[in-house]
Design goal:
Strand content: under 5%
Radius of gyration: 19 Å
Helix content: over 70%
Order of helices and strands: HHHHHHHHHHHH
Number of helices: 12
Structural class: mainly alpha
């Protein structure tokens, strides 16, 4: 396969792993406190990330102070994203939460314009405005449609946006696996501290299998997401991120019996379409 096709396959694999991880966590159905759930998954995931990084020779901690600051911001944002996203995930249909996250390419574009002074033309600004309308259709901010858990999902979008902007500021020579390991350890430590203040729930064999499965899927997601950055053109590969919404719809239907309403599907379609348009415009500008 060409580098672009290889990258597309890796991106789809990454999105599939992320979504299966989310589905397994949702299947725990709140049987464990959130902090305990994140801590147990984090212990296993961090150990696997460390073993994988050592085997690949991808760990290096002699990093510039400015890069460590960006890693600290990124890791803190990862903690917030994990808390808000999984809380929303345990209380909303999988496809709804995933659909809200599809606004990320648009929020990152706005953040880059505000923080890094990157140009934001009228076409991209229009796409961002339409994408915001799509998100409003998904969360339906009103006495019947909007809920606290929708707000949690939007808070996760903010955290992930900050995380991605901090990642963009990292020097090219900072190993991706080092950043991944530090982020995973930060989430694990914070979850461990939070879980120490309350009682732990018993971990049944079923819950243990779900947590183990989620840990392996998150490792696959991390691995494929690192690999995808090393092949092909990002402008070609990035649109395949939206395959995560397809997996979420299918898993939500088969595993939980959830199928989004027509209004939610319309909103998700608008968000995906505006994100694809933004990526298409960036590719045209890159060619020029």
């Amino acid at each position: 396969m060409s580098p672009n096709m290889t990258g597309a396959m890796l991106m789809m694999a990454s999105m599939a792993c992320f979504t299966f991880n989310d589905a397994l966590l949702k299947l725990t159905d709140g049987a464990l406190p959130l902090a305990q759930l994140l801590f147990l998954r984090g212990i296993l995931a961090s150990a696997l990330i460390f073993a994988l990084a050592k085997r690949l020779g991808a760990l290096r901690f002699s990093i510039a102070r400015g890069d460590w600051l960006m890693i600290a911001i990124r890791s803190s944002s990862e903690v917030g994203a994990a808390y808000f996203f999984i809380t929303a995930l345990l209380n909303l249909p999988l496809a709804n939460v995933t659909a809200i996250l599809q606004v990320l390419p648009l929020t990152v574009a706005v953040g880059a314009a505000l923080v890094f002074r990157e140009p934001l033309g009228w076409r991209r600004a229009s796409a961002i405005g339409l994408g915001f309308i799509g998100v409003l259709l998904i969360v339906r901010p009103g006495p019947e449609g909007f809920s606290l858990w929708s707000a949690y999902a939007l808070a996760a979008v903010v955290c992930v946006t900050v995380r991605d902007l901090a990642t963009k500021r990292l020097s090219p020579d900072v190993p991706s696996m080092t950043v991944t390991l530090v982020s995973s350890l930060t989430v694990t430590v914070c979850a461990g501290l939070a879980s120490s203040t309350g009682d732990w729930a018993p971990v049944t064999p079923r819950l243990g299998l779900l947590i183990t499965g989620a840990s392996f899927f998150i490792i696959g997601a991390y691995f494929f997401s690192v690999r995808v950055m090393r092949v092909g053109e990002i402008s070609f590969i990035a649109p395949f991120r939206y395959t995560g919404l397809i997996w979420a719809l299918l898993l939500g239907w088969f595993a939980f019996g959830d199928w989004p309403s027509p209004v939610t599907l319309l909103g998700a379609s608008i968000v995906v379409a505006t994100g694809l348009f933004t990526l298409y415009r960036e590719r045209l500008l890159a060619r020029d």
